[in-house]
Amino acid sequence: MQTRIIDRRAQGSGKSTDNRQRFMRRHRAAMQEAVRKRIQEGKIGDVVSRDEKEVRVRTGKTDEPVFQHGPGGQREFVAPGNKEFVARDTIPRPPAGSGAGKKGAPDGEGEDDFQFVLTTEEYQDIFFDGLELPNLVKRALRGEEEFWLKRAGFAREGPHSQLDLVRTLRFSKARRWALHRLRFQRQKRELEEERENLERELAGATGADIERIRERLVQLQDELDVVQRKLDAIPFLDPLDARYRRHERVPIPVHQAVMFCLMDVSGSMGEWEKEMAKRFFVLLYWFLKCSYEHVEVVFIRHHHTAKEV
């Protein structure tokens, strides 16, 4: 048998993307619980980092439904090798929970957790899930942009569904005019009319007129062949005449998340409290501007009236 080797190195990764997405949809609740636990037990630097996140999911929460034989049932036959029962015997059902189980360890469950690696996009999607404005936060913090298709003239190549018939025929007509197709068509009509007249004269001609008319008919046929070849060289529609409607993607503004930083400047706030609040807001502002380009931060100082600074 001949060995056949298939090199798939050029295909890149991501061959099991569908299976991965299906797994995450099925166990999304367990993933959310694992992410919340990681946030509670981990550090802030680990949460906001751009690296892939490894989460731990309890093994029992990743079980999938399977088909198996039930504990009971009715049988009217005896299987080979049986030494205890005979036909028509009544066998009691086994009590519930008599099958082999996974519990019983004196120190709790003895199974390891299931480790799963989430990408930054998957981690952020689960992290922002369930917030007040999940779509706004996701799209603004993750820098997603929306586009719409705008007419951008015409192109010589494109799908047939975008073919502009009016403009295509306009270019076809201009090309045929430039190549004198109409002049050749007029010459062809004149030669055909002359040939028809000579054929009518030939029917009533006698003597030397017959030979003269026949020679002229041969000349007309040669001229008609030349004109016809020129017309065939100038098609009615040429691939160069085709014009397709062209569209380009134009970015449109998307909803952005706005963070309001409020600071009380009344007499109850001492200089130390104000300085700490300013330091916190400045650090937060730098962090958001460095990490998230599409986040707008608004600073507001208030006493009896609020004012944006």
TrEMBL record:
PANTHER family, sorted: UPF0229 PROTEIN YEAH
Record protein name field: YeaH/YhbH family protein
Keyword terms, alphabetized: Coiled coil
Region (Disordered): 1-23, 55-75, 87-112
Coiled-coil annotated spans: 181-230
Keyword NAD: no
Organism: Candidatus Komeilibacteria bacterium RIFCSPLOWO2_02_FULL_48_11
Composition-biased stretches (Basic and acidic residues): 1-10, 55-66
Pfam families according to UniProt: DUF444
